[in-house]
Amino acid sequence: MPRTVQLALGSLVVGCLVLTTKFAAWWVTGSVALYSDALESIINVAAAAAAVVALRVSALPPDANHPYGHYKAEYFSAVIEGVLVLVAAMSILREAYQGFLNPSPVDAPLLGMAINGVATVMNAAWSSVLLRFGRRWRSPALTADGKHLLTDVFTSGGVLVGFALVPLTGWAWLDPALAAVVALNILWTGWGLVRESVGGLMDAAPAKEVLDRIRAVISENAEGAIEAHDLRVRHAGRVTFIEFHLVVPREMPVGEAHDVCDRVEHALREETGDALITIHLEPPHKAKQSGVLVLP
């Protein structure tokens, strides 16, 4: 079983534990704010399940129908998670509105805060694991799940602080107000997840610093060539696709030109991790003097 799938299964288990704990906190208090926090945990569980499926699909080898592999399946998981987050936010806003119309005092606030605090600590620990390995393994699904959990940690912390003020101040309306704030924060997070994932599905160019580093690697390792141009880079899940034209001297033997390409490919994989690299060799008259100049 791929390591990314194992981590996603761990997210599913942790999500179920957190969901149970947060609903217990809502059950003993009747708080709309804690209910909104628990409702988001349902999304965490659904998103973790979607991530497991997407990661298993993305690990499949290329086939006749998908010669470039199945790596983009992870983006679908992140898009689904973003959409689910938006749905949860709308449900929370509805509950908050009902709470404003009919405010009521909460029960057993200290017990509810303690139970919810345990769930928040679990989410904080697991989000750090997902973010660390998601970035290391270049997994959009794991990274999106980690970011979502981290947002959940911050919102849960805010809910707990505000929830503590309800019995101290006697302001019953503060409970649904906190739920509304949580919903707005979730909306912002969901929009960010959808936007980032759609960018991956649409083959958006990577960040400028990534492109600059790839240009530098080509320039530093293509000794013997003249220049590289028409560089195109895109990410598909954990894999980076790199394509460019490499201009070599007319008198360079094919075997020597092939060695140059091998050297550049090795250096690029050292820099980017998993990569599919396509290099098109060209004669000197194809030089554009506007691409990547090879360092002597």
Description of the molecule:
Belongs to the cation diffusion facilitator (CDF) transporter (TC 2.A.4) family. This protein is of the alpha+beta class. Helices cover 68% and strands 10% of the residues. A 4-stranded mixed beta sheet has the order 3-2-1-4, covered by helices on one side. It is elongated, with a radius of gyration of 25 Å. It starts with a helix and ends with a strand.
Distance between the termini: 45 Å
Largest sheet descriptor: 4 strands, mixed
CATH architecture of the largest domain: Up-down Bundle
Mean pLDDT: 82
Q: Secondary-structure element order, as H and E?
A: HHHHHHHEEHEE
What global shape is seen?
elongated
Q: In DSSP terms, counting alpha (H) and pi (I) runs of 4 or more, how many helices?
A: 8
The total of beta strands comes to: 4
Radius of gyration: 25 Å
How is the largest sheet built, in terms of strand order? 3-2-1-4
Oligomer: single chain
Under CATH, the homologous superfamily of the largest domain reads Cation efflux protein transmembrane domain
Strand content: 5-15%
Number of domains: 2
**Structural class estimated from helices and strands:** alpha+beta
The CATH topology name of the largest domain reads Alpha-lytic protease prodomain-like
In CATH, what is the class of the largest domain? Mainly Alpha
- Residue stretches low in confidence (pLDDT < 50, at least 5 long) are none
